[in-house]
Amino acid sequence: MYSTDLRTDKEKKSADQQALDDAQLWDAFQTRIDNGDVIEAKDEMPERYRATLIRQISQHAHSEIVGQLPEGNWVTRAPTLKRKLILLAKIQDEAGHGLYLYSAAETLGRSRDDMVADLLSGKAKYSTIFNYPTPTWADIGTIGWLVDGAAVTNQIPLCRCSYGPYARAMVRVCKEESFHQRQGYEIVTTLAQGSTEQKALAQDSLNRFWWPSLMMFGPSDSASTHSSQNMKWKIKRHSNDELRQRFIDATVPQAEFLGLTIPDPDLKWNEETGHCDYSQPDWNEFHDVISGNGPCNRERLETRKKAWDDGQWVRDAMMAHAEKKAAAKQAAQ
Ligand code: BYC
User: Fold this and answer.
1) The dihedral sign for the CA sequence 278, 280, 220, 212
2) Which of 69, 98, 221, 305 could form a disulfide with 64 if both were Cys (CB 3.0 to 4.6 A apart)?
3) Closest residue (by CA) to atom 25 of ligand 1?
4) What is the value of pTM for the model shown?
5) Separation of alpha carbons 254 and 182, rounded Å
6) Which residue has a Cα nearest atom 54 of ligand 1?
7) Nearest alpha-carbon partner for 101 in 67, 66, 57, 59
8) Ligand 1 atom closest to Cα of residue 217
9) 166, 53 in Cβ contact below 8 A?
10) CA angle at residue 166 from 97 to 29, to 5 degrees?
11) Tens digit of pLDDT for each residue in 97-145?
12) Contact 124/115 with Cβ under 8 angstroms?
C-alpha cells in the first residue's frame, strides 16, 4: 500500500505535540549548556541559538574585513619601512580572522556568499568603530591600543563560548589581537614621548577614538536586546557593561603612563566600587552609525563592493579551472 502523505514524521505531529517536543529539546539543550558541554556543528540545537550565532559570528567576520580599510589607508604612508611591514602584517592578520570566522559561521549552515551579500546590501551589521576616519598616523597607534585593546577584552571570553568552532577560532584571533594591541601602544608611546607636535597628534587621536571605542562593547545592559539570552546560552560570558568597565579600568593607567588625557572629565577612580567611574558615550551617535549614517559608512561599503566586483574574474577563473579539472577527471574514468 502506498502512502500519498509526503509529510515528514515531524510534520505529521500535532502542533501541541510539536511544541512539547521543542520544549523538551530546548530543556535538554540548556542542560548541556549548564553542564559546560561544547556544542559542535552537527549537534541538535534550537534554531534561535543557530540564528543568533550566525548573526554574531558573521557580524564579527564582516568587522574584521571592513576593519582592514581604515588601516589600509596608511600602508603607503607609514613613516618607516619597518612600520609599513608591521602594518601590512597586521592587516593580513585581520583578513585571516575574517576567513576563520566566515568558516565558523558556515558550519551553522549559512554560505559565505550569502553572508557577504548581506554585508554588501547593508543588511548585516559590522562594528561601528570602523566607520570613523583615520586622518593621521597617530590613528594607527590608537586603533591598535584602544580598538584592538577593546577587541581583546571582548573576545577573550569568546574563547570559552559554548559553540566549539567559534571558540576555537577565537583562540588564535585573540593571540594575534594581543600582539596588535601592543604594537599600537608602542606607536602611541613613541609619539607621546616625541616632539610637542607628535604628542599633540597622539592626544588628538585619543580624543577622537575614545568614545567610539567604548561603543564597541554594544549598548548598555539595560538596552541590550540579546545579552540575557546569549549569556544563558554561554555565547557571551559577561555583559556589555562589565566588559566596557574592564576595558576602562585597564586603559586609564596606560593613558596616565603616556601622559595623555582621556577626554572624559568625569573619569575618576572610585574606592568603594574598585572601578573607574565614567561618562556614557553618545548613544544617539551610536544608533546613527549603526543605521548607516556614520562618517565613513558609505565609503566603507562602496570600497567593499568594488573589491567584490573587482574580484569577480578571480572567482570565475577558479570555477572554470575546477570545472575543467572535473571534466578531465570524468573523461579519464
Ligand atoms: N557595532 O543586544 P546587543 C575587531 C548591535 S572586530 C555594530 O548588545 P549582542 C577588529 C548588535 O549586533 C570587532 N553593531 O547584541 C577588527 C545587535 O544587532 P541586531 C567586532 C553593534 O550581540 C579589525 C544590536 O546592536 N567584534 O575587533 O548581544 C581590526 C543590539 O546589541 C555594536 C565582535 O563582533 C557595535 N559596536 O552584543 C581591529 C565581537 N554593538 O540584533 C579590531 C563579537 C551592538 O539589531 N560580538 N551592536 O542585529 C559580540 O561580542 C557582540 O555581538 C556585541 C553585541 C558585544 C558586539
Assistant:
1) negative
2) 98
3) 218
4) 0.92
5) 11
6) 218
7) 57
8) 55
9) yes
10) 165
11) 999 999 999 999 999 999 999 999 999 999 999 999 999 999 999 999 9
12) yes
